[in-house]
Amino acid sequence: WDVITNSFSYAQERSSQLGLQLLTSLATNAVIGDEKIDWITSHIDRVFVSYDGVSYVQDAHRPLVSGKGSSQSVAHTLHKFDAAELDYAIRLTVTSDQVGLLPDSLEFICKNFHPQRIQAEPTFQIGRGIDAPSVETEAFISAFREARYRAKLYGFDFNFAPVRLDNLSNLVCGITQDSFGLSADGNVTTC
CA 10 to CA 16: how far, in whole Å? Predict the structure, then answer.
């Protein structure tokens, strides 16, 4: 947490000295306490939340260290973000065994929260997902189309990062833009 707050203070000071506008974003699992939520809503411009929708999907994908589900904690954070009118986006991870539940998860998000953006990504066979079965393309497309239809009923846009017609690019990160990322251990990255 100190890396985030100290880096923010430094960036704010330097951008002020240089006459630059500082725009900050944060990626999180949103399992955070109220004091940190309050700091985020008053200091960070945009937040990207990993959240998979209905509780049984979220809890299966993203359990707490204790083994209990994280859905209630994340929902609490999202409600606080909504109350503060924070600009945040939700990214759902779609696994092969849960792909059919994507439309229900998306609808759950639309009914309960107010993110500015929602997107879904199938699991990738890297990191924790190295041994996960691949999501079948046809199943993902079908579930995505149904979820996108439901999103429109609630007035939300729903996207899949590689298919963004408003952003013609072969990249899904900020590597070619004036941005960088800071990892939890303080390392700087462009993607």
Answer: 10
Cα separation values, 8 from 86, 180, 181, Å: 17, 13, 12
C-alpha distance across the termini of the chain, in Å: 21
Q: What is the pLDDT of residue 138?
A: 93
What is d(CA 80, CA 36) in angstroms, rounded to the nearest whole number?
A: 11
Q: What whole-number distance in Å separates Cα of residue 130 and Cα of residue 58?
A: 19
* b/e burial code for range 7-24 (CB count within 10 A of at least 16 → b): ebeeeeeeeeeeeeeeeb
SS3 160: strand
Per-residue pLDDT tens over the stretch 4-40? 899 999 999 999 999 999 999 999 999 999 999 999 9
On the CB side of 17, CA atoms within 13 Å amount to 6
Residue 53 CB neighbour total at 10 angstroms? 27
Helix, strand counts (H, E) of the chain: 6, 7
| DSSP class of 163 | B
Given the DSSP bridges, would you call strands 87-94 and 117-122 parallel, antiparallel or unpaired? parallel
What is the enclosing helix (H) or strand (E) of 72? helix 71-83
DSSP state, residue 134:
P
Reduced to 3 states (helix: H, G, I; strand: E, B; else coil), residue 28 is strand
Give the tens place of pLDDT for each residue, 90-120. Answer: 999 999 999 999 999 999 999 999 999 999 9
Pairing of strands 87-94, 46-50: parallel
